[in-house]
């Protein structure tokens, strides 16, 4: 097994994101080692999803740089980022209700396919070949792997929540991810579903060698499976490192339990306002 | 260029612009309260004109009574439409609901043709005929009456929205239907009220428009110009409907006078396209923030 | 009762017509389409051609509105681009009809792309109004340009194949029906590739689609292009069919007609576009039959025909949206389900 390499695949450097006067992210810097499972944690409203949206290219940061596989993502549009291997799932499931499970998964491959309008109209040659290859790969590598054979032709709207989350993961896997960004993969799941999902995430890392970056609230799972943890609070990184080290960090405990020092909070608010 | 002629053209433009603004306000009222884009507004306006004709010429009622009855007919129609066509569509996609109003428009046109035939008709004269002069510029008396009536009704609306409880209920409903409902605002009643008020207004505007230019089953095209007005102003902005109405009235009058009548529509729609490129939500419309 | 579909290859599972029954029905339909012109009267051939032209255009609009979620009230205007192009080419240059049709469709597609550009920023109703604006501008252009015959419009010679004029319903049927069938097949094919999936993704959740690697503007413009290409082709066929093209040939009401057709048939399904277009084309004829039949009893029936058509048109839109929002196709699905489960009941 390859050790969690030291080479970062994703580097976030001094990223600033503001909505009007509200600072969602300030001076956020961290990196994700290739082949690792990195978790971003923090209380509600800490800016975790904003961070994900910035990395995906949905928000444009006011300052700072994000580098992926050694190349900058500045000015790179969201679809192009996806094509380079940034795949993600969404906090509020974003499946396409008008399509079957199979089509939702296939959709993930869009950026890697070459079929053009003319090919598509005649469905011969390239279009047919690409579709058949994709179908075979989706079936054999993704659907079997995630154990969703029984629902492949189902409409996504009819599925249970846990299964929908799994289909989202499947779609992200179809994107040929170099890094897989999971936004709260087990939120709202019961114990059993959570364990299944944790197993899938570990398997993705082991079998596909994909780097994983996830936002998660379930501390048990985060501490169990991640190699590296980044803690956000009020849009700032307050700690990062090995799970065990982060767990005992005082700033982190204060963030989760509420800081005892009122003066400290006041100072921080003044600093933000300045 | 003759300054007096220009002034007269602009006055006429502002006069018809006031009617656009009035109908535009009716349109915005429905949109604000129910988020329904009512493409049948032109046909409801047309129906107002025919109802007036029916009451005044058909039943021989005095003009003022016929006007009131035409407005009441519009209100009744609004109530009926909201109850029978719009409420069942609650929660459906906006496209479906706006297609329902297109269908409604078609039904109204057919009904009017069935009752009065397809040819244009004139409304009985009921407005003063003394010419109006503003400075040296002549203004057709009917246009002047139309302008004053529209201004009064719009002012009444603005006061109603600003100062009355129903105005607050409307604003709350426009902001967030669910939240308005949960604080005890009778949202279905707001829906009904908006449709009744708007359709009554449109019917009244129809009488004014018909008195100036006559009525016909194709009079609903007026609605097309109103659509331009509210899109330019921003669908959910009453101020936008006012500015847009006057603007389109002016532009149409100037285009008609200097380029020819057939240029009216193409000039306003070109203006609309250009504006949409720069401001996709109109001059005063709310830009909704998108979330993932 | 059908107990299962036992497929042994992915290709079989991805086929357009995946059961023996469906394939049988398809063959039967094709045979009927071939036999029809030999047994039908010119009146029925005329109607069949009209239906086919409307199916072609409605299918195009369905790709844009039903699948990509972009409402357009400009389908008739795009048809007029195809029709005028074909007429001008036929009159001025006399080029082969197939070439004329393609050029007309291509030009319509180019204008469609132009109209579609605001769609990145402008949504929903605002976009629908932008397409109305484009229609108004095109109408103005055609009615003021000497090349397009201004308000009088153009009369054109028929299409010719090896020197034989295609000017009778019988020969026109053989031109129009195959082209329409190919167009429908093309649309169905398109929808099982990445392009079709991207359309649906843009319709369902356009912002997350972008993060999943689907370029929004390009996808929307592709949809506009293909939809107006279909409209242009249908308009070209229309021109060869009627051989007179005037500014009033393609009013805004026709754009509403196509939107109504896909609503009544079932938005976002190929079959829905077909059923809706045929149904909406035949209803006025049905009403005419009714009026003729009523005339002995009620002499004014024929004069009431036009308003009644308008009312029925509106009532169909409203009725379907309220009572059967998924359109005729849903009725068909229910019938099919009944036979799949027979002798059991749902």
Brief overview:
Chain A is α/β, with parallel strands linked by helices and 274 residues long. Chain A has 11 helices and 10 strands.
Question: Could you explain how this protein is built, in words?
Answer:
The complex is a heterotrimer of chains A (274), B (292) and C (346). Chain A has 274 residues and is α/β, with parallel strands linked by helices. Chain A folds into 2 domains: 1-85 and 177-274, P-loop containing nucleotide triphosphate hydrolases (Rossmann fold, 3-Layer(aba) Sandwich), CATH 3.40.50; 95-175, no CATH class. Helix content of chain A is 42%, strand content 23%. In chain A, strand 7 (179-183), helix 7 (191-208) and strand 8 form a beta-alpha-beta unit. In chain A, helix 3 (101-107) packs parallel to helix 6 (161-174) and helix 5 packs across helix 6. Chain A is globular and about 70 Å long. Chain B is an all-alpha fold. Chain B has a domain at 15-218. Chain B is built from 11 helices and 2 strands; from the N terminus they run H-H-H-H-E-E-H-H-H-H-H-H-H. Chain B has helices spanning 3-34, 41-58, 63-86, 94-116, 141-163, 165-175, 177-182, 187-213, 222-233, 238-258, 263-278, and strands at 132-134, 137-139. Chain B has a two-stranded antiparallel ribbon. In chain B, strand 1 (132-134) and strand 2 form a beta hairpin. In chain B, helix 1 runs parallel beside helix 5, helix 2 packs across helix 8 and helix 10 packs across helix 11 (263-278). The radius of gyration of chain B is 19 Å and the shape is globular. The mean pLDDT of chain B is 89. Chain C is mostly helical and 346 residues long. Chain C has one domain (42-341): ABC transporter involved in vitamin B12 uptake, BtuC. Chain C is built from 14 helices and 4 strands. Chain C has helices at 10-14, 20-39, 42-67, 75-92, 97-116, 124-144, 169-190, 194-204, 206-211, 216-242, 252-265, 270-294, 305-323, 328-341; strands spanning 154-155, 159-161, 164-166, 244-245. A two-stranded antiparallel sheet of chain C has the order 1-4. A two-stranded antiparallel ribbon of chain C has the order 2-3. In chain C, a hairpin with a 2-residue loop joins strand 2 (159-161) and strand 3 (164-166). Classes of the chains: A alpha/beta (274), B mainly alpha (292), C mainly alpha (346). Chains in contact: A-B, A-C, B-C. Chain B binds chain C through residues 37, 85, 88-89, 92, 94-96, 98-100, 102-111, 113-114, 118, 224, 227-228, 231, 235, 262-263, 265-266, 269-270, 272-273, 276-277, 280-282, 290-292, and chain C through 65, 71, 118, 121-126, 128-130, 132-134, 136-137, 140, 143-144, 207-208, 211, 256, 259-260, 263, 304, 306-318, 321-322, 325.
């Amino acid at each position: 097994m390859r050790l969690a390499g030291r080479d970062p695949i994703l580097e976030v450097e001094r990223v600033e994101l503001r909505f009007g006067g509200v600072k969602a992210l300030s001076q956020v810097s961290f990196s994700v080692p290739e082949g690792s499972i990195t978790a971003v944690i923090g209380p509600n409203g800490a800016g975790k999803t904003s961070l994900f949206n910035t990395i995906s290219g949905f928000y444009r940061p006011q300052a700072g740089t994000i580098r992926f596989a050694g190349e900058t993502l500045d000015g790179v549009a969201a679809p192009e980022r996806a094509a380079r291997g940034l795949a993600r799932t969404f906090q509020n499931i974003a499946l396409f209700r008008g399509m079957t499970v199979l089509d939702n998964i296939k959709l993930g491959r869009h950026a890697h396919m070459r079929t053009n309008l003319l090919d598509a109209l005649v469905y011969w040659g390239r279009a047919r070949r690409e579709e058949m290859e994709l179908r075979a790969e989706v079936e054999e590598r993704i659907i079997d792997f995630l154990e969703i054979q029984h629902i492949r032709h189902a409409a996504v709207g009819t599925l249970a929540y846990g299964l929908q989350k799994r289909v989202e993961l499947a779609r992200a896997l179809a994107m040929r991810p170099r890094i897989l960004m999971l936004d709260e993969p087990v939120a709202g799941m019961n114990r059993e579903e959570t364990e299944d999902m944790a197993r899938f995430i570990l398997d993705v890392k082991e079998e596909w060698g994909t780097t994983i970056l996830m936002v998660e609230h379930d501390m048990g799972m985060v501490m169990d499976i991640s190699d590296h943890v980044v803690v956000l609070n009020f849009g700032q990184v307050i700690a990062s490192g090995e799970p065990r080290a982060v767990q005992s960090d005082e700033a982190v405990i204060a963030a989760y339990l509420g800081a005892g020092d009122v003066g400290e909070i006041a100072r921080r608010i003044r600093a933000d306002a300045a | 260029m003759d300054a007096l002629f220009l002034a007269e053209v602009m006055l006429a433009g502002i006069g018809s612009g006031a009617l656009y603004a009035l109908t535009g306000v009716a349109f915005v009222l429905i949109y604000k309260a129910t988020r329904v884009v009512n493409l049948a507004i032109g046909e409801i306006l047309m129906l107002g004109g025919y109802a007036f004709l029916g009451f005044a010429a058909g039943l021989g009622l005095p003009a003022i009574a016929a006007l009131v009855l035409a407005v009441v007919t519009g209100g009744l129609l609004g109530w009926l439409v909201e109850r029978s066509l719009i409420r069942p569509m609650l929660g459906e996609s906006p496209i479906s609901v706006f297609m329902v109003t297109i269908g409604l428009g078609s039904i109204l046109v057919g009904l009017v043709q069935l009752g009065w035939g397809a040819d244009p008709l004139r409304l009985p004269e009921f407005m003063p005929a003394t010419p109006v002069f503003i400075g040296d510029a002549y203004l057709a008396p009917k246009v002047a009456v139309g302008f004053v009536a529209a201004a009064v009704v719009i002012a009444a609306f603005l006061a109603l929205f600003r100062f009355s409880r129903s105005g607050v209920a409307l604003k709350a409903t426009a902001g967030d239907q669910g939240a308005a409902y949960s604080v005890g605002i009778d949202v279905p009643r707001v829906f009904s009220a908006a449709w009744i008020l708007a359709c009554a207004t449109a019917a009244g505007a129809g009488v004014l428009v018909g008195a100036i230019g006559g009525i016909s089953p194709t009079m609903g095209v007026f609605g097309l110009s109103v659509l331009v007005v509210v899109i330019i102003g921003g669908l959910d902005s009453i101020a936008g409907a006012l500015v847009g109405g006057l603007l389109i009235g002016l532009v149409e009058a100037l285009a008609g006078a200097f380029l020819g009548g057939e240029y009216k529509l193409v000039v306003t729609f070109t203006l609309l396209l250009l504006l949409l490129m720069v401001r996709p939500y109109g001059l005063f419309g709310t830009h909704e923030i998108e979330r993932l | 009762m059908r107990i299962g579909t036992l497929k042994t290859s992915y290709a079989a599972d991805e086929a357009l017509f995946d059961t023996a029954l469906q394939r049988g029905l398809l063959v039967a339909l094709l045979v009927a389409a071939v036999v029809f012109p030999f047994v039908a009267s010119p009146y029925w051939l005329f109607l069949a051609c009209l239906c086919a032209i409307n199916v072609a255009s409605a299918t195009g609009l369905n790709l844009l509105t039903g699948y990509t979620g972009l409402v357009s009230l400009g389908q008739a205007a795009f048809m007029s681009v195809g029709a005028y192009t074909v007429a001008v080419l036929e009159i001025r240059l006399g080029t082969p009809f197939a070439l004329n049709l393609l050029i007309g469709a291509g030009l319509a597609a180019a204008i469609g792309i132009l109209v579609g550009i605001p769609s990145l920023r402008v949504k929903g109703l605002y976009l629908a109004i932008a397409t109305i604006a484009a229609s108004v501008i095109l109408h103005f252009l055609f009615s003021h340009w000497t090349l397009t015959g201004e308000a009088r419009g153009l009369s054109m010679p028929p299409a010719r194949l090896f020197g034989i004029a295609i000017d009778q319903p019988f020969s026109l049927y053989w031109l129009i029906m195959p082209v329409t069938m190919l167009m429908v097949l093309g649309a169905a094919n398109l929808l099982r590739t990445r392009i079709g999936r991207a359309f649906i993704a843009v319709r369902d959740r356009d912002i997350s689609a972008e993060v999943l690697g689907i370029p929004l503007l390009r996808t929307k413009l592709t949809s506009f292009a293909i939809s107006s290409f279909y409209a242009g082709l249908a308009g070209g066929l229309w021109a060869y069919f009627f051989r007179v093209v005037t500014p009033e040939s393609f009013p805004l009401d026709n754009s509403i007609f196509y939107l109504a057709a896909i609503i009544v048939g079932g938005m976002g399904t190929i079959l829905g576009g077909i059923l809706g277009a045929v149904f909406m084309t035949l209803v006025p004829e049905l009403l005419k039959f009714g009026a003729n039949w009523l005339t002995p009893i009620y002499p004014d029936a024929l004069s009431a025909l036009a308003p009644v058509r308008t009312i029925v048109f509106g009532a169909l839109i409203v009725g379907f949206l309220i009572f059967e929002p998924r359109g005729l196709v849903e009725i068909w699905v229910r019938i099919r389900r009944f036979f799949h489960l027979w002798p059991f009941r749902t």
